[in-house]
Design a protein that fits this description.
Radius of gyration: 19 Å
Bound molecules: 1-O-phosphono-alpha-D-glucopyranose
Distance between the termini: 57 Å
Strand order of the largest sheet: 8-11-9-10-12
Largest sheet: 5 strands, mixed, barrel
Shape: globular
Order of helices and strands: EEEHEHHHEHHEEHEEEEHHEEHH
Length: 293
């Protein structure tokens, strides 16, 4: 039997410079799409995929994330006095279980690979997931749950969320060299971080969801700096390819790049139109705005 994936790592140390001034004093992971912060969607997705332990790799200025996943007695008392039990229940449901959340500080931003390495002691010798909250995915079945199914089907191994992107955008992503491909699952033969379109091996990009075997930590330990002079997770995964299988999964769902203003605005529109409580009113507004364009 393959080992269950019980833990997820959330690298949340990034500065969010593309959203200044909004992110000057507030973590970018707390930016709301409709009324939920990005990091809440990431945690919800992990829970929907059966994750039991949540490891946040944070940095300075990110303590609000810890407060978000904690009780707020004052707020709860006021809500309770006002009889707002539905809101209270929702707040309760958003919380991971006591004792299931850990926070680690990454002292200097040294890249995604370094952020993941920081979680080594908490993950230990078991497979784990990584979720980048910037990549928000609207889907019927949680993207990470789809990836877990792929891992089960393949009898284990590493699984990456994958998606075709416009060829001219390869320099924004980790790019997969595809091997055997059934249209949904694709064998990864090589990986390269942010290649120029002129040298990119394909336009199949890695999106911010990973299921990884713990061997990645040993490789990250000695990983040289790569693109942007940072320790890249993509480089470490590429170095692991000789000893461990990697698959890309073209997941079902729509991905929004919430690290980018346009992607973030698009996500807000799409998620609002997907919400029963506001879809109709908001749809009317969108139609009237569009008519005036
Ligand atoms: C990171 C990864 C990259 C991946 C991307 C997905 O890049 O390094 O391989 O394709 O996330 O969003 P970043 O967006 O942090 O520069």
């Amino acid at each position: 039997m393959i080992q269950k994936v019980r833990k997820a790592v959330f690298p949340v140390g990034g500065l969010g410079t593309r959203f200044l001034p909004a992110t000057k004093a507030m973590p970018k992971e707390m930016l709301p799409v409709v009324d939920r912060p990005l990091i809440q969607y990431a945690v919800d997705e992990a829970r929907a995929a059966g994750i039991e332990e949540f490891i946040f790799v944070t940095g300075r200025g990110k303590v609000i994330i810890e407060d978000h996943f904690d009780r707020s007695y004052e707020l709860e008392r006021v809500l309770s006095e006002r009889g707002k039990t539905d809101v209270l229940n929702e707040l309760e449901q958003n919380l991971p279980n006591t004792g299931s959340v850990a926070y680690i500080r990454q002292r200097e931003p040294q890249g995604l690979g370094h952020a993941v390495w920081c979680a080594k002691r908490y993950v230990g010798e078991e497979p784990f997931a990584v979720i980048l909250a910037d990549d928000l995915i609207l889907s019927e079945k949680a993207c990470l749950a789809q990836m877990m199914e792929t891992r089960d089907e393949m009898g284990g191994g590493n699984v990456l969320a994958a998606m075709e992107v416009p060829h001219e955008h390869t320099s924004r992503y980790g790019i997969i060299s595809p091997g055997q491909d059934d249209g949904k699952k694709v064998e990864v033969t090589h990986l390269v971080e942010k290649p120029d379109p002129s040298v990119a091996p394909s336009n199949l990009a890695v999106i911010g969801r990973y299921i990884l075997e713990p061997e990645i930590f040993d490789i990250l330990e000695g990983q040289a700096r790569g693109a942007g002079n940072e320790i890249q997770l993509t480089d470490a995964m590429s170095n692991m390819l000789g000893s461990s299988r990697f698959y890309g999964l073209r997941f079902e769902g729509t991905r929004f790049d919430c690290g980018d203003k346009i992607g973030f605005l698009h996500a807000n529109v799409a998620f609002a139109l997907n919400r029963q409580d506001i879809a109709q009113d908001f749809g009317n507004i969108i139609r009237s705005v569009a008519a005036d364009l």
